[in-house]
Records
---
Amino acid sequence: MKLSAYFRKNLTLIIVLAVLSGLFIAAANGMESKDFVITLLRGLSVGSLTFLVASGFSLIFGLLDVLNLAHGTLFMIGAYIGWTVYVRPDTLVDLLTPLALLLSGFMLGDVWIALSNRILFGKRLKRILPWVGIFISALILFSVLKQYPIAIWKVANYAQSPVSISYLASQGQNILMPPVDMAGFSPLLGFAGLIAGSLLLAFCLAVMKAGKQAATICITWRNFSGFVVLLLAGILFFVFNNALTDFLANLNSNWLFLVAVLVAVASGIGLGALMETTLIRPLYIRPIYQLMLTLGLSAIGIEVVRAIWGRPEFTMPRPELFAGTGEGCPATSLADWWQYHCSTMLVMDGRIRVFNEILIPVIGIIVLVAVWMLLQRSRLGMVIRAGVQDREMVEALGINVRRVFTLVFALGVGLAALGGVLAAPSIGLSNLMGESFLLNALIALAIGGLTSYPGAALGSLLVGLLQQFIIKYGQIGIPIPFMDVIFKPSPPIVPASTILLMVIILLILPNGLLGKKE
């Protein structure tokens, strides 16, 4: 009875999935076996990258009810940060000290809130003084950072631009710049300026959001531990700057790529947490303002990337494990690939790229399972779902729901950054890569169900497969029945086909394939 009731309830969904499966089977019959396998793997690769964007977007919207239109830009930023770590580790190391010192003041958040509530500010002073302090801290930080020695490329000079650096890196040449001249920079004065600016900025922000409940905060030594740790870390990074740079520069490219992935994901998580706590949190009850804000952040992010890395497109070299082209390549099995580190592999006499068509889909599957287990089988997932259903009840149990929501937003952005750093070696880096993948992700979510995490995976898979089948048939053509004509889809049909699929599915299932009626 239960099975028959399930079929009756989901009859439309079952019919739609059966029709889609039939269409893909028909598409497979129209091409050779090797072409079908290669097209299938390429579709899985594109679908996996789309899923990493769509899954983060779905988590944020499904659990926090926030439409983050800057998600594609954060995907792009993850790609550029990963490129920087992988190709220019000296730049990363130079940035560690100022970054640690800048964040150190914010580790005293509870201290600042308690202190601001003990200082008797008048209403006018409480409105004016924080903005004055923020302005002063901005001047201090700008004056110090402007002179801080950071080894970085020059966008205006083609020989030292990211395009040239990427080309040299792909040829195996050393692309590190000479150590930065520290003449005219006083480390003691620079450190003092960074710490003072960070402390003043953090205190002013705390004064702006301090409330009556904050007066009950109990200050202990633990409230100062984060500040001390970051302060010592900043000093150590400065002292061992050259040694750490040499270590990363001589590190095997496989391990360096792993470091790039971890740094890009951590940067995405940090940016997501910063966005949620400072910009999104005050606008939870104003969805239109959320859309406007995230759209503006997207435009700002693109311009920042253009200013730092330039406008031209360039590629990120693949790690050694996926870049072999010599003896034994292309590989005929996974054992041969492991032995010769081939960039390509023969599958049914067809050549596939190991990084694109094997590694990326595997990572997509791992992320799908890991996040699903986190949401469904962990205490954190239970708290997240309970907080969405009844926030007041969860807070009454002593759980900081705001912190949990910040974690969800940061996790969603971290997934987008992971997709970006994986996309960099496979499709290259471009200022518009975020917009194209965000559009694919939105289409995938509309197809699979906007608030459904499994729906994000299913929709992304359908988008990736459909695009790659259309591209393949654009090469081999589609014979028209009863006519001596071969139809070859043109490139504009590729995005149009996914939009058409979305429209058809939404007409039949308004909530998507796996979406639930709200």
Note: The longest strand covers residues 344-347.
---
Amino acid sequence: MYKVIATDGMDAAGIDVFKNASGVTLEVRKGVKPEELMQIIGDYDGLIVRSATKVTAEVIEAGKKLRVIGRAGVGVDNVDVKAASRRGIVVMNTPEANTISTAEHTVAMMCALARQIPRADALMKQGQWEKKALTGVELYGKTLGIIGFGRIGSWVATICRGFGMHILAYDPVVSPERIMEHGATPVSLDELFAQSDFITVHTPVNNETRNLVRKETIAKMKDGVRLINCARGGIFNEDDLCDALDSGKVAGAALDVFPKEPNENTRLLKYHQLVLTPHIAASTDEAQSRVSVEIAHQIVQYLTTGLITNAVNVPAVSSQLLQQLMPFVELGSRMGTMLAQIAPGKLTQLNVSYEGELGAMDTAPITNAITASLLAANVEGVNQVNARLIADEIGLKVCEHKTTTSRNYANYIRAEVVRAGDDPVSIGATIFGENRQHPRIVRINHSHVDAVPEGYLLIVPHVDQPGILGKIGTILGNHNINISRMTCDRLQPGSTNFGVYTTDQDVPEHVLQEIRAVKGILDAHRVVF
């Protein structure tokens, strides 16, 4: 039975998902103190948080059973993702659940800013009728610059087009075609700064976006620009923003997020041109229900079936594509296991190539599976989540090559390891059958083989000469080891032959030594799957 704890509350609809799940239980303990979390987290397989709980490296280290961390929301800046990845823990979020709520809050902030609604409300409640001081601006005909054109940014564009606004968008990872599909004009960041009447940001906070709005970039903007941040604290330099409000360069700003929350910058409180809300962009009944339900489904699915959805530290693959890839992911795992046993030594590079239909797919899950099982023989705790990270740490370079053409198979995977001071070793594999139910190892180095990657294999490269196969069979027979399947291949008569034997039981080291001692046999390897 898997145990999951939610430390920032959970909507009833999300709780129901766990109640209806088999093999997974949920405990909701809102307001758990950091020191208490450290003491109890070791009992749980999964952790669900919103923004309050800080999942530090220390918490992750204490979570000895922890397999998955779910953030019921988009941002994961309160989770040490690198520490989780190093431990092989999947970190998930719910990127779509609060899209509408956050976009609507952004537009509400823009309207409040343009028409000075919060100030008008405050003055009215003080008994003041200040019509002349509350003149606003229309959104119609104005230019809105959107930095970050993902789900939320593009939905903001959709809403604001209804106001008759001209939309500019900057996003280095979104194609110009996709931006134009949403009725926006793709521009450079400097063009956006120079042309926009309103600017809103919808990006994560990282090395590229931290202090994106600062003294130098504000100077590039129109006089009287209005700025909105409902994304992440730290994207705006707050002191530079206040200076620009003092000078009049910025006519107003609206902030829902802050570098430290609750907000500690008292300077922000003195400006009537500033609209402030306490990180509530995603705080609607509908969004809270959706994020709870989505993260619940994702965690239950991962713990019970292994299917990963919306992970921030594992390549994002659609469920449909993952279904297609799963047989090859398993095959890749077996290929890595085999390479680890037939190519010992200091590995410096792993080259993985894909041919055929696989060449047009996102094959990262397969490459991760190969890498993980290759390293597992010598590295404790490696899995498909942390495999590439660990490979980098130990100096193993992982390279991929793809082509949609294939000479012999509809799909073909070749994995080669390069070793320090030794020859490279490669294996090739494919899957036969309409339902991809027959995995095969079809190449070892340059030799053709036909081996099922399961159970026990004995691999014997030897000189192509009479009597070798008989001697191998005799040795195995003397030790009561039965051969259930075998294949041999040579490139040309008299050259090296490659024998691959499937046996009913493992071939112990002393039997391998006996085989290696036969004249004409170059080596002998056992592979256990």
Note: The longest strand covers residues 347-356.
---
Amino acid sequence: MAKVERALISVSDKTGIVEFAKGLSSLKIEIISTGGTAKALKDAGIRVKDVSDYTGFPEMLGGRLKTLHPKIHGGLLWRRDNPQDERDVKANQIKSIDMVVVNLYPFEQTVSKQNVEFDEAVENIDIGGPTMLRAASKNFRDVIVLVDPADYGKILEELRTQGGEAGYDTKFYLARKVFSHTARYDTLISNYLQRYGRAEDEFQQYMNQSYLKISELRYGENPHQKAALYKEPLYNGLSLVDAKILQGKEMSYNNYLDSSAAIDLVKEFNRPAAAIIKHNTPCGVAVADAIESAYVKAFEADPISAFGGVIALNRDVNAAAAREMLKLFVEIIIAPGFDPEALKLLGEKPNIRLLALDITQNHTGFDIRKIQGGLLVQEKDRGMIEDFKSLQVVTKRKPTDDELAGLEFAWKICKHMKSNAIIYTSKDKALGIGAGQTSRVDSAKLAEMKAANFNISLKGSVVGSDAFFPARDGIDVIAKAGATAVIQPGGSIKDKDVIAAADEYNMAMVFTGMRHFKH
């Protein structure tokens, strides 16, 4: 260890830097600084040497070139216990720099702004800062390197109590922190520039990710599993992590999973819509002219499963909707906003988590799933039919206007159900939901059973299927349940048999040519 005699300070985030520099000055440590940092310290009455005076070389290129000089990097990199290094620095009149205090240009904050100009982003790519940080961290045995204002107080205290020195463990901790910081910084730059790459380069050769831990969660899916919440960097559109929590208990791992599923589903609809999710699966969905009516109709599809569920709405919660939802034990209500009277009513049950989130924003990025030893990465499923009237009718009978409206409604929902998925609906309300079965026939039977449990008639209903019917047996089930029309992708080797079965029952069937598996 060596006593700190000279420190270089160059920071964009000036939080706490004046107080820290005053502490260094009180320990008789010489301070070298650059540009705006030097000015801030001088204005505070702190004695500072400009880096250009120290190196004998002016700042130039509009501030792009400041610290890339042998007197800076030689002072950081030379090993104090290496005789050859010592001869080199003496021969070139290089002094030791024993501490570096640097935080980087605000690249992340810059590119997180919507509609930021590309040239502005590029000018916020720091060059000298990361270079100094890496040099100092490589030589951590001899140089203290600080990138986080949260560490200022700890280091000052250690310098004061240890004769102007810091211990090995402290220096090593700070060096590790720096390399994590610069790795994240470079990842953010790489991912930002990727947006401007060729379409065929959408999946990068190296997938670099840098997520910021927001909080540790109470536990994961089960109490014996640890869990944490991380936030995506940069601006990535719709973000559940950024939802404003207006009241309620701490969000859990499962709460976030179910909330994400509920948001994805309710975003599909333009009319006032409500979706109720339980265990990542819809148990009620409806649209109506008023949001309270949409919720009531969604609840009626499966009142038992709705207990303890997550409700998502695509309109603000009003008092009428709040009164209806207070009749049910619910974990979470997500909506763009909450009227004052609704907040007052829902405040009577303070454990209900209320999340305000602008769901009109679009998704960006990929779906990522971990497997043993790797990742599976895919585009998000944004597939949807633009014009349902143009779909291929494969049966003798065409769907009526009401049936077609129901088929569109059903198709939007089955996209968000676990495969195999079968849903019976009217044109504005889920009637029977069957999902997550290994057999499509079982899903059809489960959906029928769910409806029967609540005396919901399926006569005149329509059916949505996330993938093709592999045989006619599924058609037999839904026809006998009362369905009169079905929407499905088509593509089975037994499509002719399936279509013939639909014709036998005088059902209307349309093919989408698009599948919505969800595993």
Note: The CA atoms of residues 195 and 336 lie 29 Å apart.
---
Amino acid sequence: MGIWVLAGCGGEETRIEEIPGKFSGDVSAGAQENRLGGLPGEIYRSQKDSAIYWQPWTAESLKLAKDSNRLVLAVVALPQQSSFYRIFRELEKNPEVVDQINNFYVPVLIDGDAAHEIGILSAILCAEIGIGPQLPLMIWMTPDANPVAWTPLTSSQKNASTALFSQSHVMVGRTWTDDPSYVFKNSSRDQKNRRRRMLERMDNREISVDRGNDATRALRQLTSLYDPASRTFDEAGGLFPSGALDLFALGARMEAIPDSLREKCRMVAGYLLDDLISSPMFDPLDGGVFSSRRGKSWALPGFYRDSATQASIVNSLLDCFEVTGDKRALERAMSVLDFIERKYAAGNGLFTLGADSTGSTDRWLWREDEIKTILTGEEMELWMQATGMKSMGNLPSEVDPLSKYFRANSIASVKSPEEIAEGKGGDTAKARELYESARRKLLKVRDERMDQGKAGARANAVATFRVISAYASAYRITGDNDFREKAVSTLEKAKAVFSNGPELRLYEDSDPDSIFAGRAFLYSLALQASLDVAAITLDEAWLMWADDLATTTAEHFGAAEYIAECPPDVDLVGLPISDLRMLFVESTTGLLGMSGARLAALGRPFLEVLETHAVKLPMASIHRPLVHTDLLQAALIREFGITYIYGAEISAESKAALSRKPLKGVNRGPEGRNHTIRIDVGPTEILLIGPDNKPVSVKELD
């Protein structure tokens, strides 16, 4: 069979010689069709009609490869990174590439968010070739799931992905046809060495023996990364810095932390908030927020978003509003939460992950000439001022050095219409009316030119548990009982829908287990949501469910040496994969560390097999605090958190006051549940237990 490869990235085709010998054998009829139909999640739904014979990530697919003497061609993608749409379209529209993939491999598509351990493995493999995490990642594997070769598929240039595949296909193909036994032996040896290195890295981590001091050192280091003069945040990367905001807010309100550091946390949180809130990261048209930026400023977002990330941003904004008093943070949080409810509701009281295709960057940007055809003169004048648009475009040269988006504007809420009107001594009500009219017109135009997501998305457990925590935070800050009722009702439905006995699943009634069985990360989010709802309701039933979740987590993921990410009965790669640091969102160990600290304060510590790992603070967090903000929060909560213990006849007023205390660092629980110290609480009393673990009587709550 002749094989074609694309030379370079410009699409020019160059003929190469045939690969000699028999590269692959015949496969059964099951592998001669696309078998993604019916699988939930945007990755699988988007490719179910592809001409590529995609198979799911199952033992059966690996067996197809073994029986046919073929390699597995696995492609790992994340639904939150919409570049995968363009890359898959590029592969599919090239007949030669489709033919090569279908006739030489068993192609397997993997959602790295659903199979969380494979997402982490992708980052590990990228590190082995000296690059940061890049997805989609194409991995050639033996039928034993041992990686042979891998390359990230770039979306930076037209036809770059097909060129990368074709070139790699030739090299891997020659090696396989020359000596398949060598490929098996070499990849097996590499996998054993990889397993050894991973265990050694975990064993050799330097762990803090003084969590309190080391956590505050790391917090101080994090505050020093922000430069208020240049308004830059060193090492922040491109993701929305929710973790940093969370940590600053926690540090600002923990009274046991030195006052000077608390004030520094509050100040930096305020600076960072100001940068973000007035930037195009927040969409003034529909109220949503974007997950990442392009370049080193917030001026040009990466135009993709998902409900889970947006819900975590809501929490960050609300906590920062509490410590800074910046009302814009509250306004943005409520706007984003409203957007989540409108955009990602699944129809059964739960939430989808979203992450649908949203069109190219050009479709998100605006030019003055275009605006003139849509808005009236008054609307346009106000809109240009409110959003920071300029006739020559507002994109800084550092984010668009080649002027690809000449005269284009990304829009932001730079000034409110009321501020503009007041500055000119005008009518604020009319200014608001003009602004809303312009917003509705432009949103309608943008929606018409966007690739709309397909209907039929199913409720996702990760997204739903995130939104529950956002509801809990919204109630705590605003006191609006509607948010508390939404948090409770959504958690009740989530528990019913996503539970499979004592276990959790990513989607309702979802198979196969190797893709959709709950990972440790999902359990950590469910634990957080149940503790958040328990905190705002003082309903012990949710503490009991948190206990049950913690027990199941220990049984499924509490390996002797580490917290495993994947349930052992569905693990197809056999590597000691543990989610130890923040890649895109919090790590499993960080989330479990926070929940473990909260449960321990209420006399409900994790089982020893889990507690041993959940309390660890690596010394690396001091030097790289941005990728360990979750572990630092866990350490601060455990070392400096306070706990309220209340009696059986707590008054409605005191109960309401307790329910609105911070979710992190301020625990609350009923009398008789704390076994770490002796407490004698009167039926109407409330006791405050300080960081020194000493009870102090409290008569009234603020």
Note: The chain is about 50% helix and 10% strand.
